[in-house]
Design goal:
The complex is a heterodimer. Chain A is α/β, with parallel strands linked by helices. Chain A contains 24 helices and 20 strands. In chain A, the strands form 4 sheets. Chain A has a 6-stranded parallel beta sheet, with helices on both faces. Chain A has a 6-stranded parallel beta sheet with strand order 11-10-9-12-13-14, with helices on both faces. In chain A, strands 16-15-17-18-20-19 form a 6-stranded parallel beta sheet, sandwiched between helices. In chain A, strand 19 (524-528), helix 24 (531-542) and strand 20 form a beta-alpha-beta unit. Chain A is globular and about 75 Å long. By secondary structure, chain B is α+β, with helices and mostly antiparallel strands. Helix content of chain B is 25%, strand content 39%. Chain B has helices spanning 15-25, 55-67, 99-106, 129-139, and strands at 2-10, 29-37, 43-51, 71-76, 82-93, 112-116, 120-127, 144-149, 153-156. In chain B, strands 5, 6, 7, 8 and 9 form a 5-stranded antiparallel beta sheet that branches. A 4-stranded antiparallel beta sheet of chain B has the order 2-3-1-4, with helices on one face. Classes of the chains: A alpha/beta, B alpha+beta. At the A-B interface, strand 6 of A face helix 1, helix 2 and strand 4 of B. The complex binds thiamine diphosphate (TPP). Chain B: Pathway: Amino-acid biosynthesis; L-valine biosynthesis; L-valine from pyruvate: step 1/4; Amino-acid biosynthesis; L-isoleucine biosynthesis; L-isoleucine from 2-oxobutanoate: step 1/4. Chain B: It catalyses: 2 pyruvate + H(+) = (2S)-2-acetolactate + CO2. Chain B: Keywords: Amino-acid biosynthesis, Branched-chain amino acid biosynthesis, Transferase. Chain B: Dimer of large and small chains. Chain B: Catalyzes the conversion of 2 pyruvate molecules into acetolactate in the first common step of the biosynthetic pathway of the branched-amino acids such as leucine, isoleucine, and valine.
């Protein structure tokens, strides 16, 4: 006999099936406003999935084909929606398959709620079937984690988890649910108003006015100021304030990889991204500046290069919601703990004398003119940079763009100019291959009406391409552009430059037929081999309503330039000019 | 340099694990940790002795500890007027003839013999770490069979001197 799920739900309600701990979990999630849920079932999580089945009208539930796909999709969702990404997986292998994504979300400060099934409490610690010490494994890669020991604690734990994940410096919070707790029959009713009691967690959002005043004074005295925008600005939704601030004092701006879009990429004050593959102008400005204002960036080593050459003559002001970031890598002369938006609003209220630094602006302008980003232009063959420029034009620079990790990622950061916040989704801190495509799925779920483009490498795509299933299942029109150099390009580049061209395990001699592969998932597939073919294919890709996978064949030997070699300083860029 | 740091934490499962894993992951050298309940229900106090290179590293230790959700308060009390104590149990090789001699050595330290057997003596001593160190050195020639130390536990004195000369109390760490 066939029955619809609706009928099932009704029968459940009519027969008054007993409520379980898992039902309480689901009610708590609904109470937190969760609408989209990324899950993958398994034994220890079955009570949870059963409760989700009963409540399915409450959520859009996404079944990825690998837990890693679930969590990267949830990360993409979190990045563009600003809401926490919620993932449910089972114990043991389900949980360990999430580890990469949890670590990725942790280092890039994405708000995430991860719920893992766990073996029943009676067998925890006995190496039971599919048991892993998830608390032990995830302690160093979560902002906080919980193992539920008493079903009564559950609503409080969920409330705390959402609060912790989304406030202060956002991050992943994991809740480990032993099976007996999820399956326990309960009669407590759910009460939505739970008072938070977290005396040890009180993020400072309001900056100290004495410190902001100090910074204001430093600005009026600075001859060579630079503003560095990090992803903290995006989390704080402070893009407008940054723009007003930079314009008010004519401060040139550079960005971290993850901060792209926080400040308009086409603004005359913008110098481009800084760091290992940043622009000459930005890196030189960081080297020469006498005042560096870092807002919401964590001074990653890919940004700073050799520390002794990083802003060596500058007074450093560092605004960050996480006090532990201030002074961690680069000592701060003016430390400001607080929310980026609150700090900028405060700064804008100080009456500051207009700084005089016209020479500096002229120098930066000249550098921008003289040392723009460049790439070789082969006659017909395609190269990654060119492909990305085409994608930029075809989408008017308005798409949400996700990437994997590698050369194509750096080229996208360089050549897809981001003018608006929350359009750029990439794995920065962990540099996780396989991130880009599922992240695009999450982004498209969060913003169904926007064009979402996943720019991926042929290597990284092969790590999570099974998620093509979701495109088909959910009708998501994600455009996947494989920048296919038939190699692990970034590795190949390093081997070429630093290992005497010994290409150890970095060239693919065999590749799948990406077109057939896409088609087997009912997704349109295209292969393009020349500039002409690519230009012709653009309407087929971007005017088409459904998802497309484009196998864009590019030259293998193209490298990312300019570059700061590992261990070198900002003033030692190579490949600045063709 | 050695520093004494105390942390008040909530008694929630995994706190100790979280704190030690944090210190280990960030390569902070811990000399000792002691943990126990406090006067407040649900709260414990941890006392760490850490060996750090400079003040920047030290600041990171306290900031990272502070970041933990269940950590309520972190203080570096090294330069404060503090009381710091450690307990050590020392089992040495001995026999009935030596017992009086040992007794004579440990008395000025206000240590006591807490177990006696045919060929060994167990001694208990509490005090500042340098005092314990000194006693161990004196007993070492007899042959130490077993040694257990609790690590320092400490807090600030009720009354703090009005002027601080900074360095003076670091000597408590020996
Ligand atoms: C999971 C994972 N494994 C290994 C690496 C190391 N890695 C960094 S870039 C890269 C090559 C990426 O190749 P591909 O996806 O084809 O992109 P391309 O660099 O060619 O654009 C590798 C292997 C990584 N970042 N992530």
């Amino acid at each position: 006999m066939e029955r619809t799920q609706k009928q099932d739900q009704q029968t459940a309600a009519e027969t008054k099936e007993p409520r379980t701990g898992a039902d309480l979990l689901v009610e708590s999630l609904i109470n937190e406003g969760v609408e989209t849920l990324f899950g993958y079932p398994g034994g220890a999580a079955l009570p949870i999935f059963d409760a989700l089945y009963k409540a399915q009208s409450a959520f859009d539930q996404i079944l990825a084909r690998h837990e890693q796909g679930s969590i990267h999709a949830a990360e993409g969702y979190a990045r563009v929606s600003g809401k926490p990404g919620v993932v449910v997986a089972t114990s043991g292998p389900g949980a360990t398959n999430l580890v990469t994504g949890i670590a990725d979300a942790m280092i890039d400060s994405l708000p995430m709620i991860i719920i893992t099934g766990q073996v029943a409490q009676g067998v925890i610690g006995t190496d039971a079937f599919q048991e892993v010490d998830v608390m032990g494994v995830t302690t160093p890669i979560t902002k906080h984690n919980y193992q539920v020991r008493d079903v009564k604690e559950l609503p409080r734990i969920i409330r705390e988890a959402f609060h912790i994940a989304t406030t202060g410096r956002p991050g992943p919070v994991l809740i480990d649910m032993p099976k007996d707790i999820s399956g326990e029959i309960i009669d407590e009713s759910f009460s939505p108003n739970i008072e938070l009691d977290l005396p040890g967690y009180q993020p400072t959002t309001k900056p100290n006015p004495l410190q902001t005043k100090k910074l204001a004074e430093a600005i009026s005295n600075a001859k060579k100021p630079v503003l560095l925008t990090g992803a903290g600005i995006l989390f704080a939704k402070a893009s407008e304030e940054v723009l007003e601030f930079a314009e008010k004092y004519s401060i040139p701006v550079t960005s971290t990889l993850l901060g792209l879009g926080a400040f308009p990429g086409n603004h005359p004050l913008f110098m481009g991204m800084a760091g290992m593959h940043g622009t000459y102008t930005a890196n030189t400005a960081l080297y020469e500046c006498d005042l560096l204002i870092n807002i919401g960036a964590r001074f990653d080593d890919r940004l700073t290069g050799k520390l002794s050459s990083f802003a060596p003559n500058a007074t450093v002001a560092h605004i960050d919601i996480d006090p532990a970031e201030i002074g961690k890598n680069v000592p701060a002369d003016i430390p400001i703990v607080g929310d980026a938006k609150a700090a900028l609003i405060r700064l804008l209220t100080h009456e500051i004398e207009q700084p005089e630094h016209d020479d500096w602006l002229v120098r930066i302008h000249e550098n921008k003119e003289k040392y723009p980003l460049w790439f070789n232009k082969p006659e017909q063959d395609m190269i990654g940079q060119w492909v990305i420029k085409q994608v930029h034009e075809a989408t008017d620079g308005n798409a949400i763009v996700t990437t994997d990790v590698g050369q194509h990622q750096m080229w996208t950061a360089q050549f897809y100019t981001f003018n608006k916040p929350d359009k750029w989704v990439s794995s920065g801190g962990l540099g996780t291959m396989g991130f880009g495509f599922p992240a695009a799925i999450g982004a498209q779920l969060a913003k169904p009406d926007e064009t979402v483009v996943a720019i991926v490498g042929d290597g990284g795509f092969q790590m999570t391409l099974q998620e093509l299933s979701i495109l088909q299942e959910k009708g998501l029109p994600v455009k996947v552009i494989i920048v296919n150099n038939q190699a692990l390009g970034m590795v190949r580049q390093w081997q070429e430059k630093f290992y005497s061209e010994r290409y150890s395990q970095s060239i693919f001699s065999i590749q799948p037929d990406f077109v057939k592969l896409a088609e087997s998932y009912n997704v349109k597939g295209l292969q393009v081999k020349s500039q002409e073919e690519f230009i012709k294919a653009i309407p087929e890709i971007f005017d088409y309503e459904g998802p497309v996978v484009v196998d864009a064949r590019v030259l293998q030997q193209e490298n990312v330039f300019p570059m700061i070699a590992p261990g070198k300083g900002l003033n030692e860029m190579i490949g600045v000019k063709p | 340099m050695k520093r004494i740091i105390t942390a008040t934490v909530r008694n929630r499962s995994g706190v100790l694990n979280r704190v030690t894993s944090l210190l280990q992951r960030r390569q902070f050298n811990i000399e000792s940790i002691s943990v126990g309940r406090t006067e407040t229900e649900g709260m414990s106090k941890m006392t760490f002795v850490v060996d750090v290179e400079d003040f920047q590293k030290l600041e990171q230790v306290t900031k990272q500890l502070n970041k933990q959700i269940d950590v309520i308060k972190v203080s570096d009390i090294t330069d404060k007027a503090i009381v710091a104590r450690e307990l050590a149990l020392i089992k040495i090789v001995s026999n009935s003839q030596l017992r009086a001699e040992v007794q004579g050595i440990i008395e000025p330290f206000r240590a006591s013999i807490i177990d006696v057997s045919k060929d060994s003596l167990s001694i208990q001593v509490t005090g500042k770490p340098d005092k314990i160190e000194a006693l161990i050195e004196l007993l070492r020639p007899y042959g130490i069979k077993e040694l257990a130390r609790t690590g320092v536990t400490a807090f600030a004195r009720g009354q703090q001197p009005s002027t601080q000369d900074g360095s003076s109390y670091s000597s408590l760490l020996g």
